[in-house]
Amino acid sequence: MKRAMREIIFDTETTGFDPASGDRMVEIGCIELINRVPSGRTFHAYYNPQRDMPAAAEAVHGLSSIFLKDKPLFASGVDDLLAFLEDSPLVAHNARFDFGFLNHELRLCGRADVSMTRMIDTVAIARTLHPGAKHSLDALCTRYGIDRSHRIKHGALLDAELLAQLYIELTGGRQIGLGLAQEEEKAGVGGELGAGAMVRPVRPARVFAASAAELERHVRFIATLDKPIWLEEAQPG
């Protein structure tokens, strides 16, 4: 049996744009895909950033310092998160941003970084497919007819759910999940689009030459023909 292809779509919400300047991750949402179909398994958590929430960031995701003050620290739930992620490829929109915050939080609690070779960036995929177009999550959902009417503010799990639909469309459409592309496998390599390039399984070359038995049957068949024209043309004049 061929091993199922497992991928994790994830999104984060933060206090700002730069973990090096003290910004922290306050929410993460993850969706499990098995063979490009949501399995129904998710991971979602809020974290106390141990700092204030800038008004500009709160306006984006609606998470206030008051709401987050009784939430657990990232370190207290890191084992549950890592158990969910396993070693699967991780798909995010503008993935370097999310990887940057995830790895910053992991370092703060003494854990190893998540390898960048696991990264699949849907912005990079979209730029390849639609050069010159808008590549925001909203713009791409509109392009692919994905309903986002319920997205009033950013939310990690909601955005991961939208991104899961978008990722399926960007990488071949819904028919992948219906089993029409079961030949495709994950290639465990990085690159411009990150891990997760699609490759075809190697098959032995087809043999087109006639076998000895087939050649013998052909000679016997030719012998039954009555004055084949090619033999007449071969006679000396």
Topology diagram in text:
Blueprint: E1 6-14, E2 25-34, E3 37-46, H1 55-61, H2 65-68, H3 74-85, E4 90-92, H4 95-108, E5 119-121, H5 122-129, H6 137-143, H7 156-170, E6 185-187, E7 197-199, H8 212-223, H9 229-234
Parallel strand pairs: 1-4, 4-5
Antiparallel strand pairs: 1-2, 2-3, 6-7
What would your notes on this structure say?
The chain has about 240 residues and is of the alpha/beta class. Strand 4, helix 4 and strand 5 (about 120) form a beta-alpha-beta unit. Mean pLDDT is about 85; it is low at about 175-205. About 35% of the residues lie in helices and about 15% in strands. The N and C termini lie far apart (about 65 Å). It has a 5-stranded mixed β-sheet with strand order 3-2-1-4-5, sandwiched between helices. Helix 5 (about 120-130) runs parallel beside helix 7 (about 155-170). The protein has helices spanning about 55-60, 65-70, 75-85, 95-110, 120-130, 135-145, 155-170, 210-225, 230-235; strands spanning about 5-15, 25-35, 35-45, 90, 120, 185, 195-200. The chain has one domain: Ribonuclease H-like superfamily/Ribonuclease H (Nucleotidyltransferase, domain 5, 2-Layer Sandwich). It comes from Sphingobium indicum BiD32. DNA polymerase III is a complex, multichain enzyme responsible for most of the replicative synthesis in bacteria. The epsilon subunit contain the editing function and is a proofreading 3'-5' exonuclease. GO terms for molecular function: 3'-5' exonuclease activity; DNA binding; DNA-directed DNA polymerase activity; metal ion binding. It holds the Pfam family RNase_T.
